[in-house]
UniProtKB/TrEMBL annotation:
Residues 15-88 form the Transposase IS701-like DDE domain. Transmembrane segments: none annotated. This is Transposase. InterPro entries: IS701-like, IS701-like_DDE_dom. It comes from Acetobacter cibinongensis. Pfam families: DDE_5.
Amino acid sequence: MRAEIAGDPGAWRQQALLRRGHWNAYVVRDIVRDHVIEHLGTDDGVLVINEVGFLKKGQASCGVGRKYTGSAGKITNCQIGVFATYVSARDNSLC
């Protein structure tokens, strides 16, 4: 879907960026942090960490396994995502 939104004819260009691209995760983290602080930063800002379970029926997706998720309230096939959101009086941003 991201490829379609970007106007690419197929997902291969996006996948090539992820597979063959060379980038430093620490540099990307710093760029995102600086952007969020510049546009949303206030003295009352907080970082909210949240874990979300994505229920899955098969095993084809990366990271799928049987584990507890609050989304289902039991052990089931799922992926777990952990998200960091910066929240301030100005707005919020999923980091």
